[in-house]
Amino acid sequence: MKDRIIKSKFYQNCLRFNIFYLVLPIIIYLIMWLCYNLAIFINHNEVILEHEIDKHIPYIKYFVVLYFTYYFMPIVLFWAISFKNKNKYYFCLLVLCINNLLCYIFYCFYSVKVIRESSVNINMSLCDINSFDSIFDYLVSFIYRIDKDALNSLPSIHAGTGLLMIIMSIPDKRCKLNIWLIVFGIFSGIGCILSTVFIKQHNLIDVIVGLILMLVVYTIAFIINKYKIKS
What we know:
This protein is mostly helical. The chain has one domain. It has helices spanning 2-7, 9-16, 19-42, 52-56, 64-67, 73-84, 86-109, 133-146, 157-169, 179-198, 204-230, and strands at 47-48, 112-113. A two-stranded parallel ribbon has the order 1-2. Helix 6 (73-84) runs parallel beside helix 9 (157-169), helix 7 (86-109) packs antiparallel against helix 9 (157-169) and helix 9 crosses helix 11 (204-230). The longest helix has 27 residues, at 204-230. It is globular, with a radius of gyration of 19 Å. 31% of the residues are buried.
């Protein structure tokens, strides 16, 4: 039976197209979604850290398109890297998990609520889309609706993941991606970071702390990994 499965066309195609390396990040994303909601369940207290500078950052609904790259672009990058360097694949995936785990633990004790754009109609439906421009209104409304509590904004996981997307896209000696994937990955990473403040999903302090946390986690993991390789 085992030999038949191994020799099957389906199994061979899974190996050929690295399906396991595509599915694994998706499963981890689902687990992270559960952890995020569990943190809200554990600590539903609201702490507001809006600074004066946040009130002067304009609301730009068009950035919602870049905000959505968080949900698929990291998975695409992980999958592409799996064909080039599996060590880098597992390393970056581990960094993402550690970073997010630290965020979830923090959320359980300190839950920051973001002040959103008041002009957004949270109850907007597909039937309310009457122009191309209103599509962006609906997408922001959709984000606000599925994340209705607006809690757990500090540190920003979106910002941290955006930074990791940039790092993953930068080519090195052992892993060079397609030029278009590099450009789109870096662009998506930057856009993912900026979009969080422009669609009022995060305060500026959320983004700064999220970037610092990811940078610290990645640096420590990189040093440990380098030390292990040398030893």
